[in-house]
Amino acid sequence: MPDPDPLLIEIAPDGAGQRVTLRGPCTVRTVTDLRQRLQALPPDQPVTLDLTKVTRFDTAGAWAISLCQQRLEAAGASVTLDGADASVQSLLETVTRALPDPDHPEPEPRRLSDHVAAVGEAVYRGTQFVLALVAYFGLFLARLLRSLRHPGEFRLTSLVHHSQEVGVKAVPIVALMAFLIGVVLAFQGSTQLRQFGAEVFVVDLIAISILRELGILLTSIIVAGRTASAYTAAIGSMKMREEIDAMRTLGLDHAMVLFVPRILALVLMLPILGLIANIAGLVGGGLMAWIDLGISPAMFVTRLVEGTSVDHVLIGMIKAPVFAVIIGVVGCHAGMQVKSNAESLGRMTSNAVVTAIFAVIVADAIFSVIFAQLGM
Fold first, then answer.
1. Above 90 in pLDDT, residue 273?
2. pLDDT in tens, 226-235
3. Which residue of 154, 163, 251, 254 has the fewest CB atoms within a 10 Å radius of its CB?
4. β-strand pairing of 8-14 with 17-26
5. What domains are there in the chain, each with its CATH number?
6. Phi, psi angle pair for 22, to nearest 5°
């Protein structure tokens, strides 16, 4: 059924552009013709749409005009609306917001300056991240010193709880890991040293590798996987539920309540876990040396005492508190970066584990260089 009141579209030159005058209903009945006429407008000229004579206006008409605006503005031409009252303008804005995003053109090939800028931006973000971790470490030290001056503010119950979670519950996996590492080192070492008739030196290989490097390093990696993710998830969940904001409202220091017990528990328990890993690794290596090479436990212990310096144990233990602080600070910082959605929580938990393991390995490499320069 034809519209009794058709839409009249007049297109006339208007200075450097064109003027489109609409007369009648701009509705779903007339949108086809309106869409075709507006689509035919050249994209390189400014356009003025005169809506003064429009009698009726619905979302179909707003859709046609919005598409025309989107096309012309993308080409660099301006679109001006004349005679649009508040209701028409509101409908146009609503329809424009509801339009899907246009397909973006293929990006231009990246130039050398773009790559340099990307590298600079990555370095800047990395620097800001490291500075943020340093700031959290400083916050931990400040609150720890404050707890020494005001012992009543220290959360002893929380420290015991986190020590159990970080240390006691990690003993089985740490001991098993270290035992198997000792077994592997002894087996692989004996296979190579047997060719030179130097099987007895497998004891030195096991002792130095485990006591100096692998015992504390692999323990820290396991703890980073368990604890950094747990700290991030716990603090991030509290942040999502606005519990940290509630702490501030109640006058509680979230750093004193959340950060100090967690990081201090790691500092206390990681050296103990490292000692357990050393003992388990030596037991596993000694057992495999006995089975594969016939080195008795008494001979293994004798060679261990005579050929291994206590310095190797001290070097491993010196690393433990530093690794503990790194893991704790990374986990607490990542938890505080969680936003108000579950996707952010999962992403930050994953980032915390990766960052903590990477930072521990980098710190271990730095320690190796320092001790080598010191002749230790």
1. yes
2. 899 999 999 9
3. 251
4. antiparallel
5. 8-98 (3.30.750.24), 130-374 (no CATH)
6. -110, 130
